[in-house]
Amino acid sequence: MRIFIKTIVSAFCLVLLTAAAASAFGELRYPDRPLNLRDGRNSRTNRVGGLVQGQEVRVAFLENGWVAVFEPSETNHSEDAAVGYTNLKYLKTEQVNPEKSKWGRLMEAVDETTVHSKAAGLSEEIGSLAKGELVRTDFPEDDWIMVFPASATIRSKMGAIGFARKKKFKKVSAKNKPVVTASISKRAKNDERDVYTSWGKVLTVTGSVDLYRKRSDKSRRVVSLAAGERVRVDFLEDGWLAVFKEEERLRKEYRAIGFASEEQLLGKNDLSVSLAQTLAAATSEQQAGPATTGTQQRVVLDKNRITSSKRPDPKTDKVVHGYKYKILKKGQTKQQGETWITLKVFLATTKLPKQDALIDISTTLWKQYRRVSKKLAVLIYLPGMDTEDLSYGVVKFSDEELEESWVRKTTLFGTKFR
Amino acid sequence: MVRAGIPFYLRVITMKILKIITFLIALTLASTAVMAQQSKVGFLNPQRVIMESKVGRIAQEDLARLGQEKDKHIRKAREKVEDLQIKLETGTLTVNEEGSLEKSLRLAIRDYEQLVESSTMELKGEERRLVKFIMQRADTILRRLAKDLGFTMILTDPEAIGYVADSMDITDRVIRELNTME
């Protein structure tokens, strides 16, 4: 019995140790003298900050004797989260005669404050601070000052969130000094950011998607996205995408909340499309002007439609641009907040009309049926086609102009035009 | 010599029970074999139908054309965003001009993002419609073949199949017939 209890306790301790090891990375070190922090792994690179003797730092990514330096509490195991680099030989495992690291000032935002990437109003906005939010400020430049998370312990420009105007802050009284971390991210090391959020792709998740810590489903699963959640994706590599919060402004891979396979996220359905791979996903939706998406469904074949697909062609009653035609149906739908008028048109022709001809015919119809602030889609059917199925031509208009047109040669299958 | 331990009548009953069980097992096996002979299961790989049939390839071209059309619009929207960014970075603007340009930029970015999202959604929808269109045509062939070849069931999910004998895979025949239907 005693042995059994010992085994259980040992196993429990082992699990605890493993969990602790998983959350931390690198190791804690202490400089044995004041040290410079640099933005690269050699002494010729720019100085971005410094450490005082005995200051606790986390180090990792050793290369050529130089290590990346992180805040001791950093959990983001990515070199992009580093606040600088320094030579490992001055970093000891034991803390000797520590000096107090005193830098910057704890300040409070007097109002909602925009944080910029540079000390200039025209530079990109990379975030904002809420009124009353506490930050640490240092490295003043004219009217501007660098902003750090209130919890930052290392004085390094690489650890800054960004720049804000000095006048936007006031001193924090001693009694009002809770340690609050700024809610926006630490500024990126490299300037890969696009202005605002014009990067990656925002999409709505259509089904449950697991996010992993790395680009492998063998790595730890960090979170699951539910259907309907909106995320930003970028950095496609080996069929895996980095997934970010929709509002993420920094295009930095380390800011990702996780990784998901492209197939799972997009259904292999990016702008370069692979048809067969999303075969399993199909909708029973009828075609309308704009396409709609819904949750993924299995292909449901309508047997009745197949057997009744060979109907006689409709009789035409009008002529436009030398083509006899009939308007089969005029409908109105609402898609993604926009109102669409759809015109189903049968064109009696013995020769396959060119796309330009379809545009001309559609434009004439659009002029007749257009309505202010409504979009219009003309769906064109040819002889031999099932007019309840996909159309051959699709021409779309805004209320002001032609938006796009394309033809589906697939729909000519089984007609005399093939 | 009579063995001590199990009484004789018990041994007789046990033997009878064993005989009955053996008979039932044999009967079950025989009926399963007969049933297996009666039900013939076939397999169709829809991915191959899409990838290898002529109509499937045409559908892929259709989709690629639509993708190009969408790309054109997206590029245009992106260029608009970039133009505004460049104008903002010139540094020669008045405060009013800067404010107005920043507003335009925000709107342009929003339009761009919406366009990217809606284009992706539209392509996804179009892809599903085309796949469905082809599979509906393949289904007529499938049902006729199933009847002709005596299949009582045809499986179409490659993920769910561990093994299928070549003779039971009718994908090639369906593709061939689809191609000749055109």
- Average pLDDT over all residues of chain A: 76
CA-atom Rg of chain B in angstroms:
34 Å
Give average pLDDT of chain B, whole number.
Answer: 83
Shape of chain A: elongated
Please identify the top-level CATH class of the largest domain in chain B.
Alpha Beta
Portion of residues within helices of chain B: over 70%
Strand content of chain A: 25-35%
The greatest interface here is: A-B, 54 and 61 residues
Q: What is the percent of helical residues of chain A?
A: 10-25%
Q: Biggest sheet of chain A, open or closed, and with what strands and sense?
A: 6 strands, mixed
Describe the main β-sheet of chain B briefly.
2 strands, parallel
How many domain units of chain A? 4
Short key terms for the protein model shown above:
heterodimer; A: 418 residues; mainly beta; SH3 type barrels; 6-stranded mixed beta sheet; 5-stranded antiparallel beta sheet; 4 helices; 11% helix; elongated; B: 182 residues; mainly alpha; Protein Binding, DinI Protein, Chain A; 2 domains; two-stranded parallel ribbon; 77% helix; 3% strand
Question: Secondary structure elements and their pairing?
Answer:
The complex is a heterodimer of chains A (418) and B (182).
Chain A: H1 2-23, E1 27-31, E2 35-38, E3 47-51, E4 57-63, E5 66-70, E6 84-87, E7 91-92, E8 105-109, E9 113-116, E10 125-129, E11 134-141, E12 144-149, E13 155-156, E14 162-165, E15 169-171, E16 201-204, E17 209-212, E18 221-225, E19 230-237, E20 240-245, E21 258-261, H2 262-266, H3 303-307, E22 318-320, E23 323-335, E24 338-348, H4 355-369, E25 375-381, E26 393-397, E27 402-407
Parallel strand pairs in A: 24-25
Antiparallel strand pairs in A: 1-4, 1-7, 2-3, 3-13, 4-5, 5-6, 8-11, 8-15, 9-10, 11-12, 12-14, 16-19, 17-18, 19-20, 20-21, 22-23, 23-24, 25-26, 26-27
Chain B: H1 8-38, E1 41-43, H2 46-52, H3 54-89, H4 95-149, E2 153-155, H5 171-181
Helix pairs in contact in B: 2-3, 2-5, 3-4, 4-5
